[in-house]
Specification:
6-stranded antiparallel beta sheet
C-alpha cells in the first residue's frame, strides 16, 4: 500500500506531502491545481523516463519520494535480494527519484542507488496507473486476449503452452539443422574414414623411427664399413706381417728371456694377454665381416617406411604423439557423426511427442478461453448496464489465427449498444465516455485477479457526468474493497 508521497520542485510544485489510506482515496482539484504533477511524480517512481523540463524553474533539483507499507510485498523480496537491495523486516519500502536541471537523474531504493529498470520491474507490482491513455489499450486485440486470460485464470496455462511451443521450435530447429548439414556430415565421415585408414595403414610404432634411422644409416654405409673393417682385420691377423703374428713372435722372445731373467715374467704375461686380446678383436672382426649384409632392397623398404611416417607427421603431427592423438579424436568424431542418424531419429520422435503435447495444450487453452468468455460476457454486460448503459450487450469473439506463443486464438471485444443491434468492435462503436466505463468495468472484474496492491485511476470519469458519475464513484469504491484505489 502506498503510504506517503513527498514531492519537491517538480513542475509547479514547490513542496508537497500527501498521506494515503487503505481502500478508496480521492484527489480532486480545478485545472492547474497540480493533479497532473502528482501523476507525473507517481510515474517517475514506477520507472518513467525523466525529463529536464520537469525540474521546477529556478531550481537545480527535483525530488520525488514514496513510502510503501511492507505488508503484501513478499513477492518483491527475491527481486530486491537479487539486486542487492536490503529490505529490513517490518520497515517501509522507500523509493526516491532525483532529477537535476543539468539533465542528470538518480534513483534510490531503501537509500541504495538503483537502476531505473529495477524501478520499472518492481513498480509494475506496486502500482497500476490507469490513465487517460489507458483507454487506447482497449483498441488492441492483444490486450483483449491478455484481459480474458487474466480474468479466466488462463495465464499459467498459456505459459505452459508457450513453454511447450518453444520446445517444439527448438527441436524443429535442431532437426532442420541436421538435415541441412547432411551433405557436410557425409563428406566429413568420408574424410575422417580416409584419414583414419591412412594412419592405420602405416600404423607407426612408438620409438620406431629411431631404430629405423639407425638401420638405414648402417645400410647406406655398409660397403664403406665392410671395406674398412676388412682392412683392420687384415692388419690384425691374416699373414706373417700382421699384428698378431708380430706380437706372437715377441711373446716367444720374452718367454726365452724370462728363463734368463725371472723379473721379465710380468712383462711376458702382459704381452701374452695383449696378444690374446688382439686375437679376440681380430676374431670378432672376422665374424662381424661375415654378418654384414649389404641389402639395397632393405634400405629402400626402410626409406619408404620413414617417408610414410614423415608424411603422417607433416599432415597430422608435427610429432608421432600428435598423430596418435589426431587418430583418437578422429575416431571419436567419426563415431559421433555416424550416430547422428540415430540422433535425428530420436529428435524427430521427441518433436512429434511435443507437437502432440503442444496441440493438446493449445486446445485446452482455447477451451478455457471460450468458457471464461461466456462468464465474462455476462458479468461485463451487468457491470456496463449498472454504469448507465442499460441496453448494452458485451460480446467476446474468439477465432482461430496463426499459432503464436499466446496460442491459436484471436480475441476481440465487441459491443452492441442496444439489444438487437449488430455487434461491432468496441473501437467502432464506443464513445469516449463509453470506453471509460468499459475500462472501469474491466478493472472491477479484474480487481480480484490483480496482484498489484495500488491502482491509480487518472480521470476515469472523463466524459462522464450526472447519475453515471455517481455509479462510477460506487464502482471505484467497490474496487477499493480489494485494493488501495
Amino acid at each position: 500500500m502506498l503510504k506517503q508521497l513527498i514531492v519537491k520542485n517538480l513542475i509547479l510544485i514547490d513542496s508537497l506531502k500527501i498521506s494515503f489510506q487503505e481502500g478508496f482515496n480521492v484527489i480532486t482539484g480545478e485545472t492547474g491545481a497540480g493533479k497532473s504533477a502528482v501523476m507525473s511524480a507517481l510515474r517517475l517512481i514506477t520507472g518513467a523516463r525523466a525529463d529536464i523540463k520537469m525540474v521546477r524553474k529556478g531550481t537545480e533539483k527535483a525530488t520525488v519520494e514514496v513510502m510503501f507499507d511492507p505488508e503484501k510485498l513478499l513477492a518483491l523480496q527475491p527481486i530486491l535480494e537479487e539486486a542487492g537491495i536490503d529490505m529490513p523486516e517490518g520497515e517501509d519500502l522507500i523509493i526516491k527519484r532525483e532529477l537535476y536541471s543539468s539533465g542528470k537523474s538518480r534513483a534510490f531504493i531503501n537509500h541504495q542507488m538503483a537502476h531505473v529498470s529495477l524501478l520499472k520491474q518492481i513498480g509494475a507490482q506496486l502500482v497500476e496507473i490507469v490513465g487517460q491513455h489507458a483507454n487506447q489499450r482497449l483498441y488492441s486485440e492483444e490486450e483483449h486476449r491478455n484481459i480474458l486470460d487474466l480474468y479466466g485464470d488462463c495465464v499459467k496455462h498459456r505459459k505452459a503452452f508457450s513453454k511447450s511451443l518453444n520446445k517444439v521450435h527448438e527441436l524443429q530447429k535442431q532437426v532442420n539443422e541436421h538435415h541441412q548439414n547432411e551433405a557436410f556430415r557425409l563428406r566429413e565421415i568420408e574424410r575422417l574414414r580416409a584419414e583414419n585408414d591412412e594412419i592405420t595403414l602405416v600404423n607407426p610404432l612408438e620409438d620406431e623411427e629411431e631404430d629405423l634411422f639407425s638401420e638405414y644409416s648402417f645400410l647406406t654405409h655398409a660397403e664403406e664399413i665392410f671395406s674398412s673393417s676388412r682392412v683392420v682385420q687384415a692388419h690384425l691377423h691374416g699373414n706373417d706381417q700382421s699384428l698378431v703374428a708380430q706380437l706372437t713372435k715377441n711373446v716367444a722372445v720374452l718367454e726365452s728371456m724370462r728363463s734368463l731373467d725371472p723379473s721379465l715374467k710380468d712383462l711376458h704375461q702382459s704381452l701374452h694377454d695383449a696378444t690374446c686380446e688382439v686375437e679376440e678383436v681380430a676374431h670378432s672382426l672376422r665374424n662381424y665381416l661375415g654378418s654384414i649384409n649389404n641389402d639395397p632392397h632393405r634400405a629402400e623398404v626402410i626409406n619408404d617406411r620413414l617417408t610414410s611416417i614423415d608424411k603422417l607427421k607433416r599432415k597430422f603431427g608435427p610429432t608421432l604423439p600428435d598423430v596418435y592423438l589426431y587418430k583418437e579424436n578422429a575416431e571419436k568424431e567419426l563415431e559421433r557423426l555416424e550416430s547422428t542418424d540415430i540422433e535425428i531419429e530420436n529428435l524427430e520422435k521427441q518433436l512429434e511427442t511435443h507437437k502432440v503435447e503442444c496441440n493438446t495444450l493449445a486446445e485446452k487453452l482455447t477451451g478455457q478461453r471460450i468458457k471464461a468468455s461466456k462468464k465474462m460476457e455476462r458479468q461485463m454486460t451487468t457491470e456496463l448496464r449498472e454504469l448507465n448503459m442499460p441496453k448494452v450487450e458485451f460480446k467476446i469473439d474468439i477465432t482461430k489465427q496463426s499459432r503464436s506463443s499466446y496460442g491459436d486464438d484471436r480475441v476481440a471485444f465487441l459491443m452492441a449498444p442496444n439489444v438487437g443491434e449488430r455487434v461491432i468492435s468496441i473501437k467502432e462503436c464506443a464513445s469516449g465516455g463509453e470506453i471509460s466505463r468499459l475500462l472501469l468495468a474491466i478493472e472491477k472484474l479484474l480487481s480480484s485477479k490483480n496482484a498489484t496492491t495500488t491502482i491509480v485511476f487518472d480521470e476515469i470519469d472523463a466524459n462522464i457526468g450526472g447519475e453515471t458519475a455517481v455509479v462510477v464513484g460506487k464502482k471505484l469504491e467497490e474496487i477499493g474493497q480489494a485494493h488501495q484505489v
